[in-house]
Every structure is written in C-alpha cells, then in structure tokens.
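Dear Dr. H.,

I hope your travels went smoothly. While you were away I took the liberty of generating a structure for the chain from your last submission, since the lab meeting agenda had it listed for discussion. I wanted you to have the full record in hand beforehand rather than looking at slides cold. The sequence, exactly as received, is reproduced here:
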Amino acid sequence: MSAIAWEHLDGAVPMPRRPRLVVLEGGAAAEPEAGLRLTARGRLVLLVLAAVVLAGVLGIRATGGAGAVEPAHTVTVQGGQTLSQIAAAELPNLSVDQGIIAIQVANRMSSARVSAGQQLVIPQG
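The corresponding predicted structure, in token form, is as follows:
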C-alpha cells in the first residue's frame, strides 16, 4: 500500500510568482505613438512586393506584345500533298524540319499526318 504525505520543508525554494497585468490610468491613450513603425519582417515583405511589381512591369515591357503575333495565312491541303511539301513551299527561309515543326506547333498537331481538305495555319517564318 502506498500513501502520499504533505510535508512542509523549511529549506524549500519558493515558487516564483507569475506576473500580473496592471491597469494604467488613461488606458491606451496615455502614450500615443508617433508615425508608422515597420518591423524587419514588414520591411522584407515590402521589398519583395516592390521587386515582384518591378519584375512584372519590366517583363511586360520586354515582351512588347509578343503574344499578339497573327498567322500569315492558311493553306488547304490538296490530295497527295505532304506536310514536308507544304513546309518547303510556304516557309522557304526555314529548313524543312523546322518548317514542319513550326506548322505542327501553329496547328497543335501531334503528328505530321495531313488529309486532303484540311486547313493549316502557316506561321510567319
């Protein structure tokens, strides 16, 4: 059998007292703060925000409307015609391989297979 006994020890170290809140006369208006104070974290957030805005503005100016490129024209595929023949005829300043890829990208094609009557957008080369 076990028991717990409460004994008062004369040499025991007293427990520290917890701090208490004290109400001051005048409340929060006693000492008005002058101006805005920014913490280190607040300054970092403002710096990062300014950098993002600056990068966005410079990025938009650098593209200069690059997303607004209009296709030169469209071509209707004739019977027996291949994509390499169309690339060679319509994009003479590119190699045949580069022309095929440019036409595939412009038309979102997954292969080089074309069929008669199909309309292809020819990008500006």
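Two observations you may find useful: The beta strands are 73-76, 119-122. The longest strand covers residues 73-76.

With kind regards,
E. W.
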